[in-house]
Amino acid sequence: MTTQICFIRHGETDWNVERRIQGQTDVPLNDTGRKQALAMAFNAAHHEFHAIYSSSLVRAHDTARMLAERRGLEVQTLPQLRERHFGIFQGLTKAEGEQRHPEAYARYRARDPEYDFGPFDGLRTGTGESLNAFAARVESAVDHLVRHHNNQLIAAVTHGGVLDILYRKATGRPLHTARDFAIPNCALNWFSFDEHGLHLDAWDDHHYLAQVIKESVE
Fold first, then answer.
1. Domain 3-87+130-212 belongs to what topology?
2. Cys bridge to 54: 35, 43, 157, 159, which one at CB 3.0-4.6 A?
3. Which of 10, 101, 149, 206 is the catalytic position?
4. Residue 23 pLDDT more than 90?
5. Residue of 131, 122, 111, 133 whose CA lies nearest to 178
6. Catalytic pick from 83, 149, 206, 218?
């Protein structure tokens, strides 16, 4: 039995444009993001999705809602689909992060799987999620979707970091290596899950976005 899941990154936000690290900060879609979501929904709605899921963050939920309305479905919220928590770097650009917290930024840029954005200013524990903890959370989201939708087709609107983890899991790439693949806003990314695990079937389908698509950071 095979479950098919179309994972979709949310539409653009102003923080994407400013190249600010959003993480779990609840930033809404901007005008371009709403146009991207509408274009995605118009073109993806011909698929016979049995259910549509979303992260609990508003930029993902509003993107999912546009698809759900075209399919006549309700958006089901799954908190495990939220973006990674980037701790002290949330709200900063990468340049600001490097300037304010150079040692922490070096570990973040190195993709240290155990680094959870701490200790910092006397804190004994991190201010965010390690890559290992984040990856485990993403795997729990996939497990939930497969368990509740065996042999069905579903859509899930999520975030760039989540899609990074999914891509690596499906292709066998380790967490610590640099990202060398694009994760555009509102592109369709098709995965399947069977007794052998998670498989990547098609990546970065965004032909329908034309002039509104832009590449951006988490």
1. Rossmann fold (3.40.50)
2. 157
3. 10
4. yes
5. 111
6. 83
